């Protein structure tokens, strides 16, 4: 694995190692995937202006909500992660513990939030898809708190599921009916098939307890019917009042929504278009970040994700105004490409590239990186 030179290399390996429907689920976006491409195109258009002869030996520590993380990037919430490789969620969580960055456990993770929290050794956050049922929200928050989690991320950009055409083409939709194409894709991915057979097909342990004894298919149906599709700012306010820790709102794309979220007591804004998986015509995450930072000024905590594939991208986002940066697909390309070693390789590649880029632009620390390093 050590010869994978980039996240892109890991993605290429993942493509042949796991079945087409699983890769399509990870790699794909919504609609014509314009938003997915736009995230990358606009990030690549961010040009950095290096400062020479600074002798900088960069400090990559990022302080967020009173905590020092050794790196300024983390793992975004990813649902169905163990579909990409059995045990992938914990492989990613262990990287968070090893390198000192946060990992966000999804409501629809295929690993219990308590197990992710344990593996992440104090670095786990929890992402909530707000349920229609109050009792479920309350219980999930209580469980996250009991597991030692203090950062809550509430995702607001799924009022309806995105139009994931790769999933449709692969018939990877509910109700799931395995057909000839599914069997053919499994045959092309024997390691994945055997490993998945050994570990059992991934479920939704965070939510399973709320539906009693049901089979996987019914549970998946339960989940899609449970996500609150008529979420309002009042719901966010009530979550704010319930949660004693820090709360971020994820899926914010405009300055006016950012101001509303902060106004009702959010501790931070998570700029995201869900990695191009929801509204296809959404702005590129890096453009929203720039507009939101300009509107809010330097103080409010603004984090971002969307299209990050290298440490250099993390620096681009930092110079554009992000206090912290998250990666969704990158770690899972790694796990899908080579299991634990692949997840570790993804994390190491991002970390090494981040440090190299800070040295190259003559920036002494993440905490002072700002738009002075943007080429204008
Ligand atoms: C396979 C997959 C599953 C995801 N599941 C969730 C989820 O459960 N909750 C959530 O808030 N975001 C989810 N996201 C979005 C990510 O948290 C993140 O916003 C996005 O992946 C960032 O873009 P990137 O993949 O280009 O880094 C998912 C993304 C992917 C690729």
From TrEMBL:
Keywords per UniProt: Flavoprotein, FMN, Oxidoreductase
Species name: Paramagnetospirillum magnetotacticum MS-1
Active-site annotation: 274 (proton acceptor)
Classification of source organism: Bacteria, Pseudomonadati, Pseudomonadota, Alphaproteobacteria, Rhodospirillales
Binding annotation for glyoxylate: 129, 164, 274, 277
Binding site residues for FMN: 77-79, 106, 127, 155, 250, 272, 305-309, 328-329
Listed name of the protein: L-lactate dehydrogenase
Domain (FMN hydroxy acid dehydrogenase): residue spans on this chain: 1-376
An annotated GO cellular component: plasma membrane
Gene Ontology molecular function, alphabetical: FMN binding; L-lactate dehydrogenase (NAD+) activity
One GO biological process term: aerobic respiration
Cross-referenced InterPro entries: Aldolase_TIM (IPR013785), Alpha-hydoxy_acid_DH_FMN (IPR012133), FMN-dep_DH (IPR000262), FMN_HAD (IPR037396), FMN_hydac_DH_AS (IPR008259)
């Amino acid at each position: 694995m050590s010869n994978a030179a980039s996240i892109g290399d890991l993605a290429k390996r993942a493509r042949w190692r796991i079945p087409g429907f699983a890769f399509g689920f990870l790699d794909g976006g919504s609609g014509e995937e314009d938003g997915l491409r736009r995230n990358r195109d606009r990030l690549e258009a961010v040009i950095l202006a290096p400062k020479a002869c600074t002798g900088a030996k960069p400090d990559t520590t990022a302080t967020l909500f009173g905590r020092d993380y050794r790196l300024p990037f983390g793992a975004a919430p990813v649902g169905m992660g163990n579909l990409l490789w059995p045990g992938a969620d914990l492989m990613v969580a262990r990287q968070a513990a090893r390198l000192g960055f946060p990992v966000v456990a999804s409501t629809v993770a295929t690993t219990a939030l308590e197990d992710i929290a344990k593996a992440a050794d104090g670095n786990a956050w929890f992402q909530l898809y707000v349920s229609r049922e109050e009792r479920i929200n309350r219980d999930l928050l209580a469980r996250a708190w009991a597991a030692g989690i203090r950062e809550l991320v509430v995702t607001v950009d799924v009022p309806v599921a995105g139009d994931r055409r790769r999933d449709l083409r692969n018939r990877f939709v509910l109700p799931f009916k395995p057909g000839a194409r599914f069997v053919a894709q499994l045959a092309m991915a024997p390691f994945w098939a055997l490993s998945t057979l050994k570990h059992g097909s991934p479920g939704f342990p965070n939510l399973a307890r709320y539906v009693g004894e049901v089979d996987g298919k019914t549970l998946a149906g339960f989940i899609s019917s449970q996500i609150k599709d008529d979420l309002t700012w009042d719901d966010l306010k009530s979550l704010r009042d319930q949660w004693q820790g820090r709360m971020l709102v994820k899926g914010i794309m405009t300055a006016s929504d950012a101001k509303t979220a902060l106004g009702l007591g959010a501790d931070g804004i998570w700029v995201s278009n869900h990695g191009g998986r929801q509204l296809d015509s959404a702005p590129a995450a890096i453009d929203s970040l720039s507009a939101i930072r300009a509107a809010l000024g330097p103080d409010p905590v603004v984090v971002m994700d969307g299209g990050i594939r290298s440490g250099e991208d993390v620096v681009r986002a930092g110079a554009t105004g992000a206090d912290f940066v998250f990666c969704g697909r990158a770690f899972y390309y790694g796990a899908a490409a080579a299991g634990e070693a692949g997840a570790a390789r993804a994390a190491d590649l991002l970390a090494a590239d981040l440090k190299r880029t800070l040295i190259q632009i003559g920036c002494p620390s993440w905490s002072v990186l700002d738009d002075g390093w943007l080429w204008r």
